[in-house]
């Protein structure tokens, strides 16, 4: 059952916030001049790796995003495929108003690989917590955005195997963080790490690239 719960753990690190100010909460540049962004992220943990694509949008106070994800496992044939939605609010702080504090939440649904059986299974994920980030530098390029988050994730696994229904659930705390590196006005990199606060789970490392789109 543990291998299916990895899906939710990977997803927790993949989903970033969006918005004119809110993106600083999770290491992405504020979309002051670009109202939307596309982020592609690779994640790596012991026994699994994933690729995620996300379209983000929002304003200076409310934000959201839609993401699709594919996860492969070292010892299981097939891949899991998921879709996620996220959102939250942004509050500015600090003397220069360069710090963003954001309550954030994510909902997701993943179709799991069958592992060589005829089982049909899926995992439902709900996650909520608090994220914070700071934007250093006023130039359009070569700025740094350190960020961190503390979130609680609930996942429920359901399967139907030869007419027998099975289910399992799990709740876990996650600490995440990293550094947003703004290369140009429209391109940034986002190395990250997510550490589970429960034994039996592995740290997840990730690297993402984000492209700001459109104009205000």
Can you summarize this structure?
Helix content is about 5%, strand content about 65%.
Describe the protein in words.
- The structure is a single chain.
- The chain is mainly beta and 216 residues long.
- 6% of the residues lie in helices and 63% in strands.
- It contains 1 helix and 11 strands.
- The chain has one helix at residues 2-14; strands spanning 36-45, 48-58, 62-73, 76-89, 91-93, 99-111, 120-134, 143-161, 164-182, 187-196, 204-213.
- A 10-stranded antiparallel barrel has the order 1-2-3-4-6-7-8-9-10-11.
- Strand 1 and strand 2 form a beta hairpin.
- The chain is elongated.
- The N and C termini lie far apart (47 Å).
- Mean pLDDT is 83; it is low at 1-20.
Shape: elongated
Mean pLDDT reading = 83
Biggest beta-sheet profile: 10 strands, antiparallel, barrel
Structural class: mainly beta
What is the straight-line distance between the termini?
47 Å
SSE series: HEEEEEEEEEEE
Helicity level, as a percent range? under 10%
What kind of oligomer do you see?
A: single chain
Spatial order of the strands forming the largest sheet: 1-2-3-4-6-7-8-9-10-11
Strand content: over 45%
Discrete helix count:
1
Radius of gyration: 17 Å
- Give start-end ranges of low-pLDDT stretches: 1-20
Q: Give the total of beta strands.
A: 11
């Amino acid at each position: 059952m543990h291998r299916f719960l990895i899906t939710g753990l990977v997803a927790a690190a993949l989903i970033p916030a969006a918005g004119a100010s809110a993106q600083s909460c999770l290491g992405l540049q504020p979309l002051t001049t670009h109202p939307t962004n596309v982020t592609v992220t690779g994640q790596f943990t012991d026994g699994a790796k994933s690729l995620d694509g996300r379209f983000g949008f929002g304003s200076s106070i409310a934000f959201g995003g839609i993401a699709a994800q594919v996860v492969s496992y070292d010892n299981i044939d097939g891949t899991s495929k998921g879709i996620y939605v996220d959102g939250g609010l942004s509050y500015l702080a600090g003397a220069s108003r360069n710090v963003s504090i954001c309550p954030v939440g994510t909902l997701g649904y993943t179709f799991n690989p069958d592992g060589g059986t005829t089982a049909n299974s899926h995992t439902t994920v709900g996650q909520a917590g608090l994220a914070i980030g700071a934007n250093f530098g006023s130039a359009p390029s070569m700025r740094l955005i350190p960020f961190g988050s503390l979130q609680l994730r609930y996942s429920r696994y359901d399967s139907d195997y030869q007419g027998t229904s099975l289910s399992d659930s799990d709740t876990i705390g996650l600490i995440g963080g990293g550094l947003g590196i703004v290369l140009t006005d429209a391109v940034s990199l986002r190395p990250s790490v997510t550490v589970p606060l429960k034994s039996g789970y592995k740290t997840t490392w990730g690297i993402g690239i984000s492209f700001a789109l459109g104009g205000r």
